[in-house]
Amino acid sequence: MRLTATLLSTAAAVLAMPALAQDQTSPVTTNAAVAGQGSTAAAQSGDTGMLNAGDIVVTATRRAERLADVPISINAVSQAALQNSGATDIRQLAQLAPSLNVSSTGSEANASARVRGIGTVGDNPGLESSVTVFIDGVYRSRTGSGLNDLGEVDRVEVLRGPQGTLSGRNSSAGAINIYTKAPSFDFGGYAEGTYGNYDFYRVAGAITGPIVKDLLAFRIDGVASKRDGFYRDVVNDTDYNDRNRWFVRGQLLLEPSPDFSVRLIGDYTWRNEKCCGAVYVDTREKTDPTPGTPGDYAINPAGNRIVSVMQQIAALRGYPAGSVFPAGSDPYSRRIAFTPGRAYANVTKDYGGSGQIDWNLGSAALTSITAYREYKSDGANDIDANVLDIGYRPADGNNYRRFHTFTQELRLNGEAFGDRLNWLIGGFFSNEDLQVVDNLKFGRDYGAFAACRIVATINPNAALRNPANPGCLSAAGSAILQGQVPGTTAAFGAATPIVLGSIRLLSTLNDLGTTRDVYNQNSKSFAVFTHNIFRLTDRLSLTAGLRWTREQKDFDATFGNNNTVCPQVQALLGAGPGGNLFNNAQLAALTRGIATLACTGNSSSRLNGQTISDKLREDQVTGTAVLSWKPSDRLMTYASYSRGYKAGGYNLDRSDLGDAYNPATIANIDASRLRFDPETVNAYEIGLKYSSRPFTFNLAGFRSEFKNFQLNTFNGTNYVVENIGSCSDSLNGADRDNSLATGACTGDVRYGVVSQGFEAEAGFYPAEHLAINMGYTFADTKYRRNLVGSDAGAALDPALFLLSGSQMSNAPRNVITTSVSWNPPIGSSGMSALFYVDQRTVSDYNTGSDLFVEKTQDGFTLLNARIGLRGNQDRWAIEVWAQNLLDTEYQQVAFNAPFQGAGSQQQVQAFGGTGNQLFASFLAEPRTYGLTLRTRF
To answer: What's the whole-model pTM score?
Structure first.
């Protein structure tokens, strides 16, 4: 009702304005997006041999222009290219856009898009997207909404670099603009059905036409798809990463005159999928063979003690041998085993509506886009990725993320001084309510596992452990540690009874934890912007844009927790008979480790019922300047500067409140510890665009400098958000050590991340019906040296010691894309064939924000192909297709398996000790293939 009232009131207000203006004319395109569809469609309906990439009409500047005439770096992908590649969401779009990378982790709601190696890192919804997504001009709160089926799309535009002077929501790295097919006043539509391996089926269709001739048109799109999962759970005899979703979109287009239109859109998406399965990729234990001499490491021939612990507990629970690590040494067998009874509940609902009004006022054109959207994604899952019940989120309705978002955008554009000035001014308002509810609990096996992990850390000899006993201590282990065996002494001196008592307490931590944590964040954004093109001469133009943004965020959180073990352990070790053992030089590491496992993520009954709150206010001025020159009709060159901004916010995770072992963290709870600073960027670019009928070529060189880059990472115990900057003074390597007490900056904090490189794109059209497109991106996207973790110069978290001077995660230096499409006619009946292939090749990169070598992904090539027959005017088509034709094996994101060890290879090499962390990974999709039948009418 709120949405309907908003759209109707907006439409009524505009319709009530004087009709006189509708009779006036303007050189300015009113509905640029729909006009762009008409222009592109007209070109595509003709001889495809005469259409090249430069002819695609885009509206990136809110003006309908040929791609070759737009002086910004942009990928534009047409509906035909998307269909040939098999792309139905933005993740598959990356196959055709070399500067774009899209990945998802524990849920498809956690998707992250990156442009030129820059994007939001981590899956915390408190961080806004560095690469914003717009669908039909409407801002989507997070990238995950773009992983829905989109229905029939007219085109997708990937804008590279900071955005903000052209449309509503600002972004620091880029934007993805998706334009769906608008209603038509000519009756028509399409229907298609697909069947493929993994029992995949997808049906899609649309119908459009007039309701009132030349006045009111409609369009209805629908998609439904289902598929078995790519992972096989060998214990529960089920599959994961399946597909089960449907989508519907309805539209009305009212055009009472050529100068006035109203487009109403409503859509609904539903998904119920078990996502996401993960496999172990590295379970080795690394040791230091030469203590005191950094740089080397060895693999423990006796195996990983964490693996031994898990296998002991699995045997105790009666699971068959091999159940804990069913994939063995081959993660791409995709064999997994989750805890019986721990359901995945990933129901996602995404729906809303928008109204766009375009009015030619004569000397100017007005555009209004009003939208309201709701998004909710459930997140019940088995977080530990194995058959043991270590940690889980129950499917009791107390785990989800939910967005309610209202946006209003107004733009007025026109021309002045003849055609010398093309001006645009606009305003934007958004009101977003975000609620994150969490219920993370320690599982039934957690106590035994945590206690066994501590005992194995003290002494890896398995004979000392018995997970069936309190504290995981066998009779021999208890006797030895207490010094009761001849020739032994009490392992911890006078504190031995206290330490062993705390381990026994730890082993009782089962099926406790969060009952219901609620994080609420209201975000209001106000902005005014302008974007103006000055034609200094017939071939020289200057573009100037400016934006002022005001961000307001109000945050509160209320905690529910029944983990009574945590305060008991903290009291025993911190204020028990032995005094404060957390500060005991000999026992600090051990006692803090015990308490951290008892209170991981600041899970404590002392939090129960507590509420915290905070608020922030930000003002930011950003802008752009572009100088473009056309030395000839076919060639354009440009140089630009842009300043971008992404708002600060709150880490919606209580683990960032402070050290979990320390009772003072909760006793002095401080909401401001969850706050992080805004991210800003200065971006520079030069480029050229050449376009002729047989050949197009675009080249761009870029450099972007990010200050306070927002990095969400797991530091071994907590999920923290760091604002990455670089100190003007040398830190003498303190940003690469393992101490939080060193590395603070007393000088100025400057930008900490640099993305620089170049992009080249070429299109070859040597003959009718043949198109070859190629793209290459070189992106040297690195952290600078002398890094700090906040704008105030706080020391970088020691878990991030590898960042200094390194390439960023999920940022391959080299990406090559190629597509070849050949549509030869068959006879004179209008029938044609289709031969299509595309590829994407990337160089090595690291998938983890901490850059541990265990998370490295080698370079790989993805190949898609499609062949088919099509009737006259595409009345019918039959196509055989394959995605990932070569069955390339690669991972999306590798991660530290929760609670399962500590320490990586590089930590052992740099600091010594033992690295027994288990690493798991979310794998990418294997080869899929199938048959598609399609008809158009």
So the answer is: 0.91
